[in-house]
């Protein structure tokens, strides 16, 4: 059945066409962005949800989203999506980080001009037949200092355009390297320095716990008299009430805001103050940007739903379509290794140590890690998937470490996982053969060569005669057909293991019969997600 996608915001129709062309059923219902009850009622029918900023993806919506696999944000900011709840539900959240950056940077520059020359007010006055030439005295941008808070994709473009306007650009961004700042020809400064020196301040940071209220009353008070402040990033970055007071007192000469702490903004402390330019979150509102983000989000979501390729996800490592194809059997292997360990472990896990050897070490390890951890965590909660597993493992305080090494043995590459609990360490290794089939190649340090089947039985015993007979006879007596049988041992008469790949689930009475022989230290039936 074709995957189903719901578009619940005003997305360019181009997105609808892409979904259809890729064979995805799509419902275009932009009115649902403002109707959370209706959205909650129908979200359970969809595999994908494509949105802009009106739709709020809350835990309540996610609770009802039983088939949802991916949320695609046609834009950059994902603060309208509860990403933690999405991750817990196993839903990938992706955005389109580059599609509207030029447009938004241009809006910030336009706002800077507008506030420097009071263009909106002058326009209203002129339309009214007044000719107030002396009222609208502006300031030049040339030679002025622009303080950019957040010099990422959009901030970086703003820096570039501002330098073209012959402004002196200083930037505060703790994650901006000195070398990159030099390439961008901007001076990297501390926040206090920026506040003291800037004639114009423009914000281009995401809204996080660190950036919320970054222009607080205290920080606004540190700004240069006559400063003009532009916010085309996110509401909540600036204390709007404190800014309004500084505008009234004349300390701040002007402000240009595209974003507000409450949106849609029906009222705001900045409204109706002189020399405050406001736009209704129009930063990304150009035909070009909307086309870009709609096309991009539709392609990314379709790729994921149809091929498993992951691009621009915020809660899952990227996997290209090519990687998804090559890595498919290795991702499966990682899942099987995790599933083996998960089923064998019934005490709290303290650490998961993963070793990637040879060919495996050259792959997308982040994706392999997610699959392996999901294989383990699924045994505790069947709803866990590659998206939610790392988060759930972290919540449980499980330490995860990975090591990679050059090819060290007979196999071109392998993955070995060791799980540490309070009582023991347990390990298993596997590889993928040239036929594309995952194999278990070592358990507890004992070499084996076991094909992975949907239903398996694992036993440990002392290496004594009669084991094969007991296993064969018990399975036969219980009507279980053995497809494959693998044995391994440390040494003659030493510790031994057996893995049986059987055609149907092994009944409990067969397992009890094996235990009753007294030949085995451990008897465990295992299930793997083999198609
Ligand atoms: N108005 C609109 O319509 C519109 C459109 C697109 C994007 N946006 C918003 O613009 C903002 C920037 O987007 P972007 O694509 O440039 O993001 P980005 O991730 O490319 O850049 C953000 C920058 O902020 C920096 N940063 C993070 N924490 C910081 C901190 N505590 N102090 C200083 N710098 C910090 C990062 O290092 C990064 O360089 C986001 O909030 C986004 O949601 C708004
Ligand atoms: O979709 C929009 O109009 C706003 C987009 C913008 O805020 C973003 O973060 O990309």
From TrEMBL:
CDD domains assigned: ACT_3PGDH-xct, PGDH_4
Pathway as given in its UniProt record: Amino-acid biosynthesis; L-serine biosynthesis; L-serine from 3-phospho-D-glycerate: step 1/3
Xref: InterPro entries: ACT_dom (IPR002912), D-2-hydroxyacid_DH (IPR050857), D-isomer_2_OHA_DH_cat_dom (IPR006139), D-isomer_DH_CS (IPR029753), D-isomer_DH_CS1 (IPR029752), D-isomer_DH_NAD-bd (IPR006140), PGDH (IPR006236), PGDH_ASB_dom (IPR045626)
Keywords: Amino-acid biosynthesis, NAD, Oxidoreductase, Serine biosynthesis
Record domain ACT: where: 456-531
Molecular function in Gene Ontology: phosphoglycerate dehydrogenase activity
Top EC class for this record: oxidoreductase
Enzyme Commission number(s): 1.1.1.95
Catalyzed reactions: (2R)-3-phosphoglycerate + NAD(+) = 3-phosphooxypyruvate + NADH + H(+); (R)-2-hydroxyglutarate + NAD(+) = 2-oxoglutarate + NADH + H(+)
NCBIfam families: PGDH (TIGR01327)
Function of the molecule: Catalyzes the reversible oxidation of 3-phospho-D-glycerate to 3-phosphonooxypyruvate, the first step of the phosphorylated L-serine biosynthesis pathway. Also catalyzes the reversible oxidation of 2-hydroxyglutarate to 2-oxoglutarate.
Family stated for the protein in its record: Belongs to the D-isomer specific 2-hydroxyacid dehydrogenase family.
Protein name from the UniProt record: D-3-phosphoglycerate dehydrogenase
């Amino acid at each position: 059945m074709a995957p189903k996608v719901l578009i619940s915001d005003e997305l360019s129709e181009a997105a609808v066409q892409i979904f259809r062309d890729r064979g995805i059923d799509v419902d275009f219902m932009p009115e649902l962005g403002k109707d959370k009850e209706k959205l909650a009622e129908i979200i359970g029918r969809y595999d994908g949800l494509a949105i802009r900023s009106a739709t709020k993806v809350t835990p309540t919506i996610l609770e009802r989203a039983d088939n949802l696999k991916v949320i695609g944000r046609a834009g950059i900011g994902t603060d309208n999506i509860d990403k933690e709840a999405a991750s817990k539900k196993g839903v990938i959240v992706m955005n389109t980080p580059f599609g509207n950056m030029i447009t938004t940077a241009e809006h910030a520059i336009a706002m800077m001009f507008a506030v420097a020359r009071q263009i909106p007010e002058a326009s209203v006055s002129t339309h009214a037949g007044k000719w107030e030439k002396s009222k609208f005295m502006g300031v030049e941008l040339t030679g002025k200092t622009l303080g950019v808070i957040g010099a990422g994709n959009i901030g970086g473009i703003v820096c570039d355009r501002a330098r073209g306007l012959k402004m002196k650009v200083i930037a505060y961004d703790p994650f901006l390297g000195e070398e990159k700042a030099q390439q961008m020809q901007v001076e990297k400064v501390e926040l206090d320095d920026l506040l003291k020196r800037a004639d114009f301040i423009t914000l281009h940071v995401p809204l996080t716990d660190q950036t919320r209220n970054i222009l607080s009353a205290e920080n606004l008070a540190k700004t240069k008299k006559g400063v003009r402040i532009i916010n085309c990033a996110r509401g909540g970055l600036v204390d709007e009430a404190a800014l309004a007071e500084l505008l009234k007192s004349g300390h701040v000469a002007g402000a240009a805001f595209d974003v507000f702490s409450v949106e849609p903004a029906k009222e705001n402390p900045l409204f109706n103050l002189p020399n405050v330019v406001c736009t209704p979150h129009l930063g990304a509102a150009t035909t070009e940007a909307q086309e870009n983000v709609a096309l991009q989000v539709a392609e990314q979501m379709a790729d994921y739903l149809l091929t498993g390729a992951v691009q621009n996800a915020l809660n899952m490592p990227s996997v290209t379509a090519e990687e998804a194809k090559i890595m498919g059997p290795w991702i499966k292997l990682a899942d099987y290794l995790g599933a083996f360990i998960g089923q064998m472990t019934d005490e709290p896990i303290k650490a998961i140590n993963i070793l990637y050897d040879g060919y495996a070490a050259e792959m997308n390890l982040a994706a392999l890690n997610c699959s392996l951890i999901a294989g383990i965590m699924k045994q505790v909660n069947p709803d866990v998937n590659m998206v939610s597993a790392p988060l759930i493992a972290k919540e449980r305080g499980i330490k995860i470490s990975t090591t990679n090494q050059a090819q060290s043995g007979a196999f071109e590459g392998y993955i070995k996982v060791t799980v540490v609990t309070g009582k023991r360490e347990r390990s298993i290794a596997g590889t993928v053969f040239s036929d594309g089939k995952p194999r278990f190649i070592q358990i507890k340090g004992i070499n084996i060569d076991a094909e992975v089947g949907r239903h398996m039985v694992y036993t440990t015993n002392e290496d004594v005669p009669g084991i094969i007979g007991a296993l064969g006879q018990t399975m036969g007596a219980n009507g279980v057909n053995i497809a494959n049988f693998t044995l391994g041992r440390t040494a003659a008469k030493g510790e031994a293991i057996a893995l049986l790949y059987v055609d149907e689930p092994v009944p409990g009475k067969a397992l009890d019969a094996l235990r009753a022989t007294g030949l085995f230290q451990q008897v465990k039936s295992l299930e793997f997600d083999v198609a």
